[in-house]
Structure formats: C-alpha cells, structure tokens
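Researcher: Final request for today, and then I'll write up notes for the group meeting. The sequence and the SMILES for zinc ion follow.
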Amino acid sequence: MTSATNGPLQSILERAHRVPDTDHFPGVDEIAARLDDLVSNHPDLIAKRRIGTSRLGEPITMYSIGTGPDQALVYAGVHPNEPIGFWTAIRLAEELCADEELRKQTRWNIIGCIDPDGARLNEGWFAGPFNRVHCLEHFYRPAPAEQVEWSFPFQYKDAYFDQVMPEAFALMRVMDELKPAIAVSLHNTELGGVYYYVTKELEGFVDELHAITASFGLPLDLGEAESPVARPLGPAVYEMISAAATYDYTESLGMTPYSGSGASSAEYAQRHGTVSLIAELPYWTHPAIDDQTPTDVPYREVLAAKADALGKDLDALVEIFEAGRPYLSGDSQLVRATAAFLPYLVKRPERDRRRAEQEDPARMATVAEAFGLTDIQRSFRLRFGGMLLRAIEGEIARGSAAAPLHPLGRRMRELYREWQDEAASLDQELRTVPIKHLVGVQYAATLALLYAARREAN
Ligand SMILES: [Zn+2]
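Model: Predicted protein-zinc ion complex:
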C-alpha cells in the first residue's frame, strides 16, 4: 500500500466498522421505508426520483445525495437473492445524510432495490434463521434473461440479446444520463470467502481490497474461481467477467455458447468510461475456504467426480420438472426460472468433464478446491430444487393443481429433504458472518473504489 492511500483507507475503515449490527435483511417495503424516512428528515439533502416500474408494477426509485461534479452510482438487487447490498445502499444513504465531508465532491445516486419483484420472492428467508437449509428453501434466483445484471443488450458472434426488461432499462437510462465515474453493482455469494471483480486495474486497489477484507477478519476466497474465464488481478480480485469472454471460452471447449442472456451492467456502463466494482461476500465461511494445502487427489479427478454427482441430481430435477410442467402456471417467476435454468445447468457437468481432460494429471487439488467443488453440487441442488419444490407446492396451494402434480410434489419434497439433511450436517462447521461485517466490507470497498478511481484520473 502506498503512503498516499493510508489516510483515506484509514478513515474508510473507521466508517465501515461503525456499521450497526442487525438481525435480518430488509425486504422491499423496509428498503423503501428506510430511504423515504431519510428524505422526510433531510428534504434539503436528498432528491428522490422514480426511475422505472417493475414488471409486476412496483415503483423503482433512486435517491441522490451529494454535490458532485463526479457521479457515483450504487445499485442493489441486481440479483434479488443477494440482500447484503440492500443494507449497504441504506447505510451509504444514511451516512451521506449525516456527514458533510462524504457529500463533498461526489454526487451519490443510490438505487435501494432494482428488482423488487424478485426480492419479494426471497423475503421468506430474510428474517432468518440464517442457516443454509432454511435460506435456500425460500430462495429465488431469476432466469438468466430476467436477471437485471445479465440482461443488457449483447451482440457478439452468433449471440444476440435485446430483451431488456423494464428494470434493466431503467438502469440503462440512469447510466446514460449520469455517465458515472464509478458504479458499484451490489452482489453477494453464500458460502466461501470474499472476492471482487473490477473493470479496470487500479493502482494499489487490490491491496486496499485485501486490507478491507482482513480488517473484518474475513477470509479471501482462494479456491475454485466462480468462472474459469475470470482473469485474476491479484488473489481473489478478478477482472470483471464479460459475456463475450464466457462465449469464447464455451466455444473453445467445443460447446455451443449460451444465448439466453445478455451483457452485464458493468459492460454497459463502460461506454461512459465508468469503472465498476462488485464485492462478493458470503454469509458463511468454512476453514477449508482459504486452505491451499494440497490433497492427495488430482484436481482433474475431483472435478470429473463432482461433475458426475451434480449431473445425477440435475437429471432428477429435469425429470420431475418435465413431468410436472404441463400442470404448472407459466406466469410464475419460479416456473420461468426453472424452465430456463435446468437446460442450461445440465450442460455444466459436461463442461466440467471436458475441462478436467485438459487439466494436468499431476496437479493435486487443494483443500479449498476440493471443498469448493463439493459445495457447488450442494448449493445447486438446494437452490434449484428449492425453486422447483416451491413452484409445485405453490401450484398445489393455489387449489388448482391437476392430479399428476401431487405425487410429483411428494417425490420432490422427499428428495429435497435428503439434500437438506446432507447440508444440515455441514451447517455445524460453518461460521455465520455478522451482517454488519458484510455490510462493512461492501461499504468500505465502495468508498475505496471512489478514491482509487480518483487517484487513477489525477
Ligand atoms: Zn450476484
């Protein structure tokens, strides 16, 4: 770290460590209420503006605070199953109201929740208990084309995507209007360590992100990268993944690239010279996450074995979904998501098996990699099995289910319970990170990005 960064970073960390603790994540109504309270209490400081409407009719609102001339854009809920950012957005707005120093030089534009429809479908777990079994049973992740993060226009080789949703279109309009110097897309993971994506290599920034992570006692995620195309800029800090890079990689494996989603919000913002950051944070950590000790099993063997195990679970989900699909309502977000994810996910085991063939047989998997690969199977089946289960049981609860859905619902519940029991045994080994630390890291990383981008510009 250079001495020039010590001053700002120190004060950023002090701010971040003052984030108060909380026992839940806010739902759509609480996010709006908290931000609207600030407007009521500080009408002279905050400008509130409606920037769009969700597909189900919820208003999408942006709150702008600070003097500029630089514009910063912070948006939460691009993946509505990732609620840490809801608190980060609220905390940033609260601190901006309370602290004139923070308001100087930058105008912060904060979108508390860009996908309220999706967030409402996750509210079942936002109040806890915070174990993985409960969380993933009430979890909803939109179909790729319906994720605000990945539904920006995309044209590359044979791929063409222009089905931009109203929520993403609202964000596009804001980006075009503000041309922000920095943007922070608020995401999070579930289990693992902390890692980051940034669109541009900024002098000293990797060290600062590491210092922020360490100051909260959180491990960096040094295991299996989320995507094989992610180019590391340093440990657990990657260059932002682009849809084009993922396309090329899939093609290089001799497989057909997925064409059901678009570019990311960061890719869109780049036309304005915006530097974007994502800070990925987990609710739970495990001692294996940053354990680089080699195991006695080659990496390629672990990869191939886990691919086979995941393939078996996905086949079971596909079979149940195909049998039940004629009886499920097509206007359900859960059904649309399942219909989009399963055909896409079933290709992953094959992709991993091909990747395994390219790996050096002499390279042993680290403890972190072996744990990470095992956990992908666990996480996938709990997530997507939970969504299918809710779709079927929801149809039954509506009181209009055709007879064939009942045995499918029972079978899915039974299978899901087995997966939950397996995951529950691991729950004991997990450490739950206090929510205030998660928010603190994201908040600090957001402020640090602003300083790093400014240093670069000067
Ligand atoms: Zn995400």
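Model: The pocket of zinc ion is lined by residues 79, 82, 187 (CB under 6 Å). The chain has a mean pLDDT of 95.
Researcher: Thanks, that's everything.
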